[in-house]
Amino acid sequence: MTLFWLIAAALIAATMAGLLPPLLRAGRPMQARQSDAADLYRGQLDDLEADVRAGMLAPEHRREARDEVGRRLLDDAGSLDVAASASSRPSPLLAAALLALLPSAAIVLYLHLGNPIALWQASDPGHGHDAAGAPSAAQIEGMVNQLAQRLRGEPDDLEGWVMLARSYAALERPGDAAMAYGKAVALAPDEAALRADYADVLASVDGGVLNGLAFAQIQRALALDPNQPKALALSASAAMERGDTQEALRQWQHLHRLLPPDSQTAARVASTIAQISAPAAPAKAAPQQVGAEAITGRVTLAGNLPRTPAANETVFIYARAAEGPRIPLAVMKARAGDLPLGFVLDDSLAMRADHRLSGAGQVIVEARISRSGQAQPTEGDLIGSSGPVKPGARDLAIVIDGALGTRPTPLPSPSR
Length: 416
What we know:
- With 416 residues, this protein is of the alpha+beta class.
- Helix content is 51%, strand content 11%.
- The chain contains 13 helices and eight strands.
- The longest helix is centred in the first third of the chain and has 26 residues, at 62-87.
- The two termini are 58 Å apart.
């Protein structure tokens, strides 16, 4: 802050240095100015005589021209008398006034139009902010309260209500967020995304229940836009909450088709689809007829695993393309207590109709024991895999002999 004021003072001083000297310095004496004027007009008379001699001016017009020059001389002499009274004397009072007023005016204008608080905060970085310069929780609360106060006087400000609702949600005040979203939805009843956000906070108010207060907003959002991503996710979760697995799977698959294939959201949705759709394998695989595309084999545990899996941990067995998208082409699940276990992967276990084992070139079969029970790989999961094989391969031996480290193997990502 001190540096700022030093620079400001230097700029003001430079400005004053340019303005004050002319005001303090006396003008040229009047006699000198009159002498200059007389010399100028004397030269004009000489030019006039030269024009007559050269034949450029008729002799009968010479007198008229000389009279005109004389009149201009008399007029200018009067002007010099008036100007001399002001310019020949210094102006110390005007200089003093500028010296007093100019710096004061500059400071007043800065305080009014500038940002002096920024200078104060710069000189005290810890004031009201964390070490990274972000606003403190108290300041954020203050800004949110100011916005709420403003909206009381401007109840038709849609963007303001949406901003307030999101701010309340970020501050974990779902009741206030629901109130603000309600105001916003009343102003824009046909905005599907807005209703999906409203449903989300209503579920929080309702203890996480999606089939209560939130359900009507979810349905309305999907009626307005059947492809609204958040509404689809909420609807699928609500179906799972009701125990309607088939409806949940349909909604998740619909959402999955809308997402960018390589996005993290698509990967999470694929995990959910895999978890829902993978059938549980029987403890003893019964003899069955298998199709030409089916891959058969057996999964066993190595003896030197870094940990011993619990009997109730989930085992995912799946085939994925050796090259290209890593979305599973067929997937099944079992329990670690069922190992060693025979398996059959075929088109009936496809996650999506357009990604089947029979349409692949070469595939890799993997078996993974999930400590969390989720399809998304996490650190500590145990895994084993085959090399590249063609659909129709028989009697593969998959040995679970390793563990995922701190950099988990990416979940087979979705692709369209």
